[in-house]
Design a protein that fits this description.
- There is one protein chain.
- By secondary structure, this protein is mostly helical.
- It has two domains: 198 residues; 85 residues.
- 64% of the residues lie in helices and 3% in strands.
- The chain contains twelve helices and two strands.
- A two-stranded antiparallel sheet has the order 1-2.
- Helix 4 runs antiparallel to helix 7 and helix 9 packs antiparallel against helix 10.
Length: 307
Amino acid sequence: MVKLLGPTLLEVIVLPGPMPSLLAWLSLVAVGSGLLWRGRKAVAGTTLSAAWSWAAASWVAVIAASWIGRLAAAQGDEGDWRQSLQMAAALTTVCPAMALLGAKRPQHVAWQWIVLSLWVVLSLPAGEWLLFAAPPNVHTARRWFLLVLLVPGIVNYLPTRHAVAGLLFGAGQIVLLAAYLPGGSLPAADHTLPALGLIVAAMVVAQRPRRPMTGGDPLERLWRDFCDLYGLVWGLRVAERFNASAATNGWPARLVWRGFRSASGDGLPELSAAEREAVAANLSSWLGRFQGTQGTALDASSCSRKL
């Protein structure tokens, strides 16, 4: 195993190999780390903080595994432990999307143990690789299961303003995990550099300045912001629960992906002041389970305009 204790500064910074590749790697790490740190502000006070934490942990794990692999290769260590470490690190990229699926209070905290357990199960072949010093036989069912796990993270943001970012991140995951997906083979080639490039591109696109939303109804704007942040899965679920409440209370409003519609589905609903206040309070209650007191939960008394 590579000697990681006590390397000189020159040994850590200057590694053998193509200098352009090393400079590209360092640039991507620097830019991606800055963008990831900046992105935490967008989810502060919401249940997306757990998904951000998993994303940060995954970013550090992938970078650390790649850096250790570079140090090992520089010292002539070609042991299987390097690839087992990189495999376990690459599998952490599944965790942020899985954390998002449990992003509703009060179960959002306990859900993270499920995410951790999933990563442990996925990483069992990496443990076998490390223990037996030979590439594991990754069963076809396990490969297809991993591919299925990648789908929610990609599809979830397709109908939102983050569709391109979701596709880029999904492409980065596929490049990074290609050897463990159907059709892949072990030992795996190191595709960390192109994967990091795609993931950093996803972060750039996701954090691009958006055009200010002026005019329109505040309830509509709040709903669109929520759907952009949480995606298709939670958008449809909240709309379903709101519509059940609307039917029970006789409100002439239904919530669809693009906003509020009349109960018949034609145009915007006409609501009385009392109905509007009740609708705003109900929506605020549902979104508060995701955004909490520090998020953008809606103050029902401030929504006095008609839909």
